Amino acid sequence: MESPLQIIDQINIISSVQKLVTCGNKVTTIPSHYAYFKNPSDSTALPGDGIPIIDYSLLISADHNQQTKTVSELGKACRDWGFFMVKNHGISEKLYEAVFEKCEEFNSMSDDEKQEFKMKKDVMDRIKFGSSNNLSSTQVRFWRDYLKLFIHPDFNSPHKPAGFSETLLEVSRKQREVMKNLLRGVSKSLNVEESYLYNMAEMDRGMDFFAANIYPPCPQPELAVGLSPHTDFGLLIMLASNGVGGLQIQRNGTWYSVDVRPNHLMVNLGDHMEILTNGKYKSAVHRAMVNSKTTRISAVTVYGPEVNKFVVPAPEFVDDDSPPAYRGMTYRDYFIADQTSTTKGVTSLDLVRI
Q: Which residues contact 33 (CB under 8 A, 6 or more apart)?
C-alpha cells in the first residue's frame, strides 16, 4: 500500500502547502516536485551585514543637510545593491502584526471558505489565492501559499476573516505615503526633479499589487525554495515580514541573507525602475528560503505604473551616449507576461531588452 506521502506526491495540484504539512501525518521528507536544490549547499548565503539601511525620518527631514546626505545614501544603495532597508518609517509594528495575523487566519480557513477566491486562469483577477506559482507549467513547485490582491487605484480585499479588509486598507494607505517619499528621494538621487519618476509612471493611478506569501515549516528546507531567484515587475517593492528570516539578495553573483530587524521595511528596485532609468538603477535579483521550525509570512506590495502606461526609458536618461536599452511595452502586458510565462528565467526584462 502507498504511504500518504506517496499519494500526495502523485497529486498534480494540492490546495496548499499548509494543508500538506497539517494533513495529520507527520511529513518528514518533501514530495519530489518540491525539491528545488540538487545540492543543499546551493541554498546557503553570506551574512548581509553590509546591506544599506535608510533612515526615513531623515529622508523627509526639514534639515536640508540631513535630507541631502540621506538622498546620497539612498542613491548609493540603489546603485550598489538595488535593495535597502527602511527604519523610522512611522508605521506601527502593531499594525503590521495585525496584517500578519489576518493573513494567517485567511490561509488557515477551510478550502470551502476560500473557494470563491481560488486562483483561476486570469491573472488580472482582483483577488486570488493559491499555492506554489503557475502550477500548470512549473516543474518544481514553491514551498509557499499566497493571497494576491490589486489594492490601488481600486482597493480589493477578501471580506473574510473579519477585520482583514480594514487592516489592510489602513496599512496600504500609510505605506503608499512612504513609497511616494522614497520615490522622491530616488528621483533626487538621479539629479532629476523630485516628482519626475512618480509623474513619468503616472503613479497617482498606479497599480499597487499586494501579495501575502506564507511559507509553512518545511521538513527539508535545504532542498525546497519559497521563491526561486527572480526580479519583480514595478518600480519599488516594499516588504514587511513577521520577524522570521528567509529573504536573500544577490549582489555580483553572491547571495546575502537579509537580517530581520524589528519594524524595518525591506525595499527592492523592480524591473520598471530599471527600464525608466535606462539601466542606471538595476532591478534586484532575490529569492525566498524556508525553514523547518516556524511559518514565515511576508506582506509584499509592488508599486507600479498606471496599468495602461506604455513604459519606455525616460527622456532624462537617454542621450547619444546612452541610447534606449529597452523597448516599450504597456505595464499590463508586461505584468501578464511575467505572471504567465512558461519560459521565464530569472527576469522578464529579457522581453524588452534591446
A: 9, 139, 140, 141
Residue that the C-alpha cell 512612504 belongs to: 178
Q: Is the pTM for the entire model greater than 0.85?
A: yes
Answer yes or no: are the C-beta atoms of 330 and 213 closer than 8 Å: no
Question: What is the C-alpha to C-alpha distance for residues 74 and 194, in angstroms, rounded to an integer?
Answer: 13
**Nearest Cα residue to 26 out of 8, 14, 40, 13:** 8
Give me the pLDDT at residue 47, please. Answer: 96
Give the C-alpha separation, 218 to 290, whole Å.
7
CA-to-CA separations, 197 to 201, 205, 315, in angstroms, rounded: 6, 13, 11
Q: Output the CA torsion 20→26→29→35 (10° steps).
A: 10
Radius of gyration of the chain (CA): 20
C-alpha cell at 302: 509592488
Half-sphere exposure of 215 (CA within 13 A, CB side): 31
Split at pLDDT 50, 70, 90, the class of 238 is very high
Give the C-alpha distances (Å, rounded to integers) separating 336 from 90, 276, 307. 34, 19, 11
pLDDT in tens, 307-329: 999 999 999 999 999 999 999 99
